[in-house]
Amino acid sequence: MSNPGPKIYLLPNLMTAGNLFCGFAAILRIIEGKSGEEALASGKYKEAIAFILGACVFDLLDGRLARLGGRESPFGREFDSIADVVSFGVAPALLVYDIVLHDFYKTGWVIAFFYLLCGALRLTRFNCMAADPAYENKSKDFEGFPIPAAAGVIASLTLFMLWLDEGERTIGNWKFGLPALMIFLSVLMFSRVRYPSFKAVNWRTQRSLPAFIGLIAVLVFSAMNYQWMPAVLFVAFLLYGFVRPFVSKALRREIEDDDESGDDGPEKSDAA
């Protein structure tokens, strides 16, 4: 009997393809920003950042759609990781390299590659754990900082710096914090700090009317202040992993919308 090949579910993998396209488009914009006039470079970098943040949205949707329809698959997991390496590994590394790391010559190469390498290794470890039955039902949490969130931190903070130095390609002296940030995030991806996956939040999640209105208000406020609000949200998530052990269980369940935080299912479809 012939092997029919891997199952390819349409909607989740379309979201992953959107993720990959955003990463590819971000890389093109970064290259155009480097080769173009300085007056246009800032706009190209902002477009690249928008594509990286858009990839975060697509990455969030593909896992949700897969679990909603019970359509998780090995093909989807591998395709998702390939897209993540491009969108959350190569694109942020190239962005920071073009803005500041090229000033450090070969050291800049090492820093950018170190971030890319850590991200790729983390995704590989994630796939190995997801495929190993021994890890079934171990935890809902991510151990270490997820690479989409790391890319979101880099992209959103770079956008914030561009906003502070509007029209400046080099972002002034703020840019020298980016190499240290990349190294910190690279190490954090392999740390023991645990972050919620928010897998309990899905299309069936229910909230009270005040909570729903509050969420809408946050989304509207973020859209109105897109220059700096994404940085606040991503940095808040980054810091949450450090303060989470000190948060009461009741408040943690409320934040993460999880009845039994950390006790249900492995991290399978969302990127690590």
Helix content: 55-70%
- Tally of separate helices: 9
In spatial order, strands of the major sheet run: 1-2
Give the CATH topology: Four Helix Bundle (Hemerythrin (Met), subunit A)
N- to C-terminal distance: 36 Å
Q: Radius of gyration over alpha carbons?
A: 19 Å
**% residues in beta strands:** under 5%
- Number of individual domains: 1
The top-level CATH class is: Mainly Alpha
Described by the principal axes of the CA atoms, the overall outline is globular
- Average of per-residue pLDDT values: 82
User: What are the low-pLDDT stretches, counting only 5+ consecutive residues below 50?
Assistant: 260-268
Give the class from helix and strand content and strand pairing: mainly alpha
Q: Characterize the main sheet.
A: 2 strands, antiparallel
The CATH homologous superfamily name equals: CDP-alcohol phosphotransferase transmembrane (TM) domain
CATH architecture: Up-down Bundle
The beta-strand count equals 2
Helices and strands, in order, run as HHHHEHHEHHH
Notes on the protein architecture:
This protein has 272 residues and is mostly helical. It has a single domain, classed as CDP-alcohol phosphotransferase transmembrane (TM) domain (Four Helix Bundle (Hemerythrin (Met), subunit A)), CATH 1.20.120. 65% of the residues lie in helices and 1% in strands. It is built from 9 helices and 2 strands. The protein has helices at 10-35, 38-68, 74-99, 106-131, 147-164, 177-188, 209-224, 229-243, 249-256, and strands at residues 142-143, 194-195. A two-stranded antiparallel ribbon has the order 1-2. The longest helix has 31 residues, at 38-68. It is globular and about 45 Å long. The protein starts with 9 loop residues before the first helix and ends in a 16-residue tail after the last helix. 38% of the residues are buried. Mean pLDDT is 82; it is low at 260-268.
